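cron nightly-structures :: item 1 of 1
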Amino acid sequence: MSIVIRAMAATDIPAAGKLLSQLGYEMNTGEVERRYNAVRERGDHAVFVAEEDGRIIGFLHLYERPAFDKPPEVIVQAIVVDQRSRGTGIGKTIMSMAERWASERGFSSIALTSNISRSGAHLFYNRLGYKIEATSHLFRKQLEGQSV
């Protein structure tokens, strides 16, 4: 098993969409492409994929977050490992890449959110040394005339 973590390319968009759908984020390929293009143009964001034998088995989106109310840190916005490859160390490899990316940019912490229903993911993050710092509710209002 040879896992390669690399920057996501446009050719990876269909595979990324399939991975995101495993977490319940259903999007057509055009929408995944639109979001990929918006993110890749930002210098403070990065998107990586984990590849094994030519197959995309993991996805990572992270970004730099400056803030007043929290420490400036890197946020893992999305991480997913193909359900057939979970429990094999790929998630740990992907998170190591996230931590390296943050360290290389001078950040001293990295944070992420995880849906309360994902208890398996919570155990995984705990094993990597991540601790629950806070709980909160996400409030959203859809603006008229604007698409998601």
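cron nightly-structures :: done
The mean pLDDT is 94.
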